[in-house]
Amino acid sequence: MLEHGKISARQLFFILVLIRFVPVMLLCTYSYTLKTVQIAWLNDVLGVALSLLYLYLFVRLCKGFKDKTIIEYLESNLGPVFGKIIGIILVIHFFIIAASDARDMGETFTTTIMPETPIIVFILIIVFLGANAARNGLEVIARISEFTVPIILLFLFITISLNYKFIDVKNLKPFYFPQGFSELVQPTGSILSLYIGEFIIVGMIFPYLNKMQKCSKSVILATLFTGVLFVILCIDMIVIFGPTFKTLSIPILSLAKLIFIANFIERIEGIVILSWVLGSAIKIALFLWATAVGTGQILKLKSYQPLIYPLGALATVNSILNYERAADFINFFTGPWIVYSSTLSISLLIILYIAQALDKQKVKS
Amino acid sequence: MKNINFRQLLYLFLLLFSILILAGCWNRREIESIGFINSVGVDRNINNKIKLTVRIAKPFTLSGQQNTNVDERSFWLTEMTGDTVFEAVRNFLNHSPRRLFWAHNRFIIFGEEFARQGLNDAIDWFDRDNESRRTAQIAIVKGATAAESLQVEYELERDPSQGEAGVVEAAINGQSNIVDVKLHDFLLMLNSEGIEPVATRTDLVPTPQGPLDIRGNLKREKIGLTGKYIGAAAFKEDKLVGWLDGKQTRGLNWVKGKAKGGILVINNPKTGKRLVSIELIRSQSKIIPKVINGRPSIEVKVQAEGNIGDIQGQFDINLKTWEDMEKMMAEGIKDEIKACLRVAQKEFNSDIFGFGAAIYRNYPREWERLKNNWDEEFPNLSVKISVEAKLRRTGLILRTLQE
User: Fold this and answer.
1) Which member of A68, A190, A192, B292 has the lowest number of beta carbons within 10 Å of its beta carbon?
2) Which CATH fold topology does B246-403 show?
3) Could you read off the pLDDT of B265-309 as tens digits, one per residue?
């Protein structure tokens, strides 16, 4: 085994909550997909419900892995060639997430607080930080996220609750679809694709859980928990920003900038910036770790640590070269990513079913 | 020397490298090198360029040390032009020793002429820029340019922006005859269906320079120009269409449910000539839209609460006079709403109340049809107003002393 650490089901819950929160706090591609603002919360509900269905099936299949990661499992059941091809696709998927997350974080920093600083500075620092955490293994990542998530949630709670003055519940009406139900597709797809595309990482973490039977519980709980929070957050955005919600590039920051209480509690967006750094560094660490472990298992290496820094360097380069401008990033995550990620996740589910069937046959014979 | 291995050397280099990162970044801004903007005025000059006038705080005049020169102005007023707002903002850097900092801006003031041509040319930057905030107040100067209005001073405050903010806050809570419109509110009204924006209105009050000033201190001259906040500026889309006075503005606030306080003067129920003033405490409102056979109509329900504040020619308060006063109070409120409704419908033809928005929220499909000819529909819209007024307390006097 490449990774020797063991994490608890509770730590898995915190990891999942964290990786799902990062894209919401940073440059938010979700608001670009919105057409009618007042029904935006419905997309969250639909997206989370569909993700729950997917993740329930996915985690049930994970139980067949026993002490293997998804990559080892596929290889042992589908044969070295086909299994390796799918393994490589998965590793590239994790790598893309790590790189685009670094880009997202850099893009957010350059649009908001430091417009003149080259984006590579932020990406280098955050990837270096993430790579160092990833080198120390899953246990370290799990422990950092365990104490980071409550801090981020506290900041989020402060940001949401201190804006009560601007709330206008009337903004939630009317509940109707000017362009028919088709306008729900893109935003719901955006939420769904982020959930299922990123939660595939459970397949990598699964064998390192100390109580594997609790895995599905924490995945479902994490999905429900983030889902409920997103619906609350989305409703908060609608009642505060009304029709201008869909024009905001970083809604959470705009929300924090509005806080103005008694000429005293104001200008507290620093806490949002702090959560960006904390959240994205850990998310990058996790996905770099998954990329390295996956690569190590495909190539049958003895340790994955030497891969981390080169992969980090590659992620930095990838994040710079893949997107020339912020518009490229937004275009990718509002269109191609949705199709790509959902296709990948759903075909993975089918492939896992086939692999499980083959596995059972093997056991019988 | 032998004990130092490669790993330790690497750490040493990392530590040294971190000095480069920790020392700062490209966008570091020391507090001594930035000029804090308090207010900004937006006009057009004769060449149709955008002219920005900014009031920059002079921090050294505001420090609490004893030997500071109290006669020195606490701000620097300067102006710059440019084709766009952002160009003008950058053009300041050619003559301002400090880089402008926008996060503390409290007022965005527009001249009347600029507002009549439309705010859309100027408003985007204030929402897009990363320093600027949506909590800045949007104010329109009546009959003057924004540059002139930035020359006002207030007797009680050294910093005029502080004075302006004080007046606005006091008038919102104590009078309700101005509207509290921040950039955030303005953008919301501008982008929402079926509602036209309003903005805070400000007037300039020149104070005549008398021969003798007995109020101020010996050295300081009297303030020449001061500001007044009353009423509101009514828009149609992003263009200014007219002004509301104090009474009409409170009418607007009644409909929007934003009236928080103020004095309403009614006739004395016993002797018609003398007056009673009622202190308004709080209000609630509800706009109920109806669309019957494609014809829209609106019902406005207002609930208001007040206390008796002042009675000319005291009289015995009994249940009958109490109810009479409540009725007159309701009439007075209705009057204010009608005054506002009349100008909005007949003069401005601008739906500043958000009646269209109410229809949109309750009858979205009907609104799809109505919104195209809302301009013809709105002036003839039938609006039913019902006011429920409650008098709560009488102050420290319960009944009369004379009569």
Assistant:
1) B292
2) GMP Synthetase; Chain A, domain 3 (3.30.300)
3) 988 777 777 788 889 998 999 999 998 888 899 999 999 999 988
Checking if the pLDDT of A263 tops 80, the result is no
Q: Which residues of A touch B188 (CB under 8 A)?
A: 241-244
Q: How do strand B99-101 and strand B34-44 relate by DSSP bridges? A: parallel
Asked whether the beta carbons of residue B130 and residue A113 sit closer than 8 angstroms, the reply is yes
Partners of residue B193 in chain A, C-beta under 8 Å: 243
Q: Residues, chain B, total?
A: 403
Task: State whether A242 and B188 contact (CB < 8 Å).
Answer: yes
Q: Is residue A231 part of a domain?
A: yes
Buried b (16+ CB within 10 A) or exposed e, B192-231: bbbbbbbbbbbbbeeeeeeeeeeeeeeeeeeeeebbebbb
Locate the domains of chain B by residue range.
Answer: 27-244, 246-403
Domain boundaries, position A87: 9-364
The tens digit of pLDDT for each residue in A168-220 reads 888 888 888 878 888 888 999 999 998 899 999 998 998 898 888 888 889 99
Q: Are A201 and A67 in contact (CB under 8 A)?
A: no
Tokens of A129: 């930080």
* CATH number, domain containing residue A117: 1.20.1740.10
At A344 the pLDDT is 93
In a domain, A4, yes or no: no
Tens of pLDDT along A87-121? 999 999 999 999 999 999 998 888 888 888 888 88
H-run or E-run covering A284: helix A270-299
- Cβ contacts (< 8 Å) between A260 and chain B: which residues? 135
Q: In whole angstroms, what is the distance from residue A278 CA to residue A26 CA?
A: 12
Among the partner residues B26, B187, B360, nearest to A174 by beta-carbon distance: B360
Provide the number of structural domains found in chain A. 1
Q: Which residues of A touch B365 (CB under 8 A)?
A: 176
**Rg of chain A (C-alpha set):** 20
Nearest by Cα to A218 from A7, A11, A5: A11
CA A32 to chain centre: 18
Question: Directed axis angle between helix A9-25 and helix A185-199, to 10°?
Answer: 140
- C-alpha distance from B224 to closest chain A C-alpha (Å): 29
3-state secondary structure of B268: coil
* ipTM value: 0.87
Whether residue A3 is contained in a domain is answered as no
* pLDDT score of B289: 93
